[in-house]
Design brief:
The chain is built from 24 helices and five strands. Helix 20 packs across helix 21.
């Protein structure tokens, strides 16, 4: 890749304020109380520890949250940066306390983002390039049994208060825990053996001791997950309700948490139905362009176009190595084309690593750079063992979503902006509707900028937009107990109706799609935050454009993006207030 021009914009000098000092100290407190979060933020000194998921651990984090809000209450902002910090911290930390007090954090169990997954996933972000790094990994493996036991204690306490995850989530997590407990299939078995370990640990006595600690740590982690599987299967499952829906009150709280904004849930559902129809119409128009004279009237146009694209050898990759190389080349080309032209991209952010994940769940995700950028931003692709071919037309938009101008530009910009933002703003604050909404906004923006003019690539972008619109409908429909549209039976939404609906609207293998549905059913409010977040981002931009037109001017999109991303991840209501 050629070297694109880095940003020449100098970060303004700003003297840290009392509010910044409070926010910075709170990051240190968070790191102490949540070492998994410390590793995610790239803060050194915590990689040998595991987060306490027991009731006492939750109470300690809640006490710290109350204390920092009390400190902030006595402060007056000295500038606009302080004003946003106050608004963002009060909104985020206040919602975390609401979730704690409602018992939601004690009861956390779903297929993708609960402590059961977090205890394993943290190892993906840990350094492995020195004997000391492997010592930390060994220590953290040995800490899993206590953390897992504390997690079971929290689930037990929540159940005693009437908050038990749905049976579907318990069953799926039993399967996940059992796999991690199986020596032949466990991630922990693979972690402590193989070339990554051999490249660092030689045959010296000291390294042999580290190897032994790794092996016993992996065994301890497997045993802990075996016990967790037993607890879920024998103790929690008999109490678990069959109903997936969480109801309006719980859903409204989670929706506010994931969006950082309060929306009319019924209006949002109606909008989701309309948005899905709009995207389908756009897809059908592009499908006709792809098929040309080969259109078979009376059959699903989009499915015809998908089949044609999947048959195209020029759009097919074979094997994970080819996939990784294509990801990297596509990402590099985007950085090369966008930096200094459509976006300000600081020099440390020109580097984005594309990786095949060590797991095989099928997920695609981004991990942030460390605070000093010694660990770069990374895009990960978790490939199931049965998947050996990949279609580029589906995935080009995904590279833009996870990379530039999506998550890498957004999250990396916040990490980089240390001259203006305190550490809490740069490293600790994450709002799904802001982050995932921006990533979807970025996908559509790349189409508008001409990077998805190829009809196949454009259909891939619309394929993702359709899925995100469909899950607005499913998520709200099921959890609020709404009535499905007549074409989907006109009855109250449930998991079976949702499955039929997703099969018709989401172009994805059934095993992937089943996981997606289980995710929506167990993580209320998160899936809609992508598309609803995109909606709120676009509404904010359009409001600014209208104001510019009223003043006889035109909105400078590059300046808008720079200003908006310069705020870091904040709730969407805070974003809108800060920009408008």
């Amino acid at each position: 890749m050629s070297t694109p021009p880095a940003s020449t914009t100098q970060q303004p000098d700003r003297t840290p304020t009392a509010i910044d000092a409070i926010a910075d100290r709170y990051v240190d407190t968070l790191a102490e109380l949540d070492p998994i979060a410390a590793t995610a933020m790239g803060l050194p000194g915590y990689d040998d520890r595991m987060t306490d998921f027991s009731p006492a651990g939750h109470d300690a984090r809640a006490a710290a949250a109350r204390a920092v809000l009390d400190e902030l209450a006595a402060q007056e902002p000295v500038d606009d940066v302080d004003r946003v910090t106050l608004a963002a911290m009060r909104e985020r930390i206040g919602l975390e306390l609401e979730l704690h007090e409602a018992g939601e954090l004690l009861a956390s169990l779903n297929v993708i983002a609960s402590p059961l997954q977090a205890m394993r996933e943290v190892f993906d972000s840990m350094p492995t390039d020195s004997p000391e790094a492997w010592e930390n990994i060994a220590a953290r493996l040995h800490a899993i049994p206590q953390a897992a036991a504390g997690y079971a204690e929290s689930l037990r306490l929540a159940a005693g208060r009437g908050l038990v995850p749905a049976a579907r989530q318990v069953t799926e997590n039993v399967a996940q825990a059992a796999e991690l407990a199986d020596p032949a299939r466990s991630f922990f078995s693979r972690l402590v053996s193989g070339p990554a370990v051999d490249a660092v640990l030689d045959d010296s006595t000291a390294c042999s001791l580290v190897r032994r600690e790794l092996e016993t740590g992996a065994a301890a982690a497997r045993d802990a997950y075996a016990e967790l599987a037993r607890f879920l299967r024998e103790e929690l499952a008999p109490q678990a309700p069959e109903q997936d829906a969480v109801g309006r009150e719980r859903y409204a709280l989670w929706s506010r948490y994931f969006l950082g904004a309060e929306v009319d849930l019924d209006e949002t559902y109606a909008w989701g139905v309309q948005e899905l129809a709009r995207v389908v119409a756009e897809q059908e128009a592009v499908a006709r362009e792809i098929l040309g004279d080969a259109v078979v009237e009376g059959e699903d146009l989009v499915r015809q176009a998908v089949a044609a694209l999947d048959r195209d050898p020029e759009r097919t990759l074979h094997g994970t190595q080819a996939l990784r190389e294509w990801m990297q080349a596509t990402s590099d080309a985007a950085v090369d084309a966008l930096a200094g032209v459509h976006f300000e991209v600081p020099e440390p952010m020109l580097r984005l690593e594309c990786c095949i994940a060590p797991t095989q769940s099928g997920g695609i995700y981004y991990t942030a750079p460390s605070d000093d950028f010694s660990r770069p931003g990374r895009m990960w692709w978790s490939v199931p063992p049965s998947v050996t071919e990949f279609n580029t037309w589906r995935e080009k938009t995904t590279v833009y979503h996870e990379g530039v101008p999506g998550h890498h530009l957004q999250i990396g910009q916040a990490v980089y902006n240390r001259a203006t933002l305190n550490r809490w703003r740069r490293l600790a604050c994450w709002v799904s509707g802001h982050g995932e909404g921006w990533a979807l906004y970025a996908e559509r923006l790349m189409a508008d900028l001409g990077f998805l003019d190829d009809p196949g690539d454009r259909l891939g972008m619309l394929d993702g937009q359709r899925m995100r619109a469909a899950r607005v409908v499913v998520d709200l429909g099921v959890h609020l107990g709404l009535t499905a549209p007549q074409e989907w039976g006109g009855e109250t939404w449930d998991a079976d109706t949702a499955w039929r609906f997703l099969l018709a609207n989401v172009n994805m293998p059934e095993a992937f799609l089943r996981f997606e549905l289980n995710r929506y059913l167990g993580w209320p409010g998160q899936a809609p935050s992508y598309k609803v977040g995109q909606r709120l981002w676009e509404e904010t931009r359009d409001s600014l454009a209208a104001s510019a037109r009223d003043a006889g001017e035109e909105l400078d999109l590059r300046a808008f993006h720079s200003r908006a991303l310069g705020l870091g991840s904040v709730g969407l209501d805070v974003l809108r207030e800060a920009l408008l």
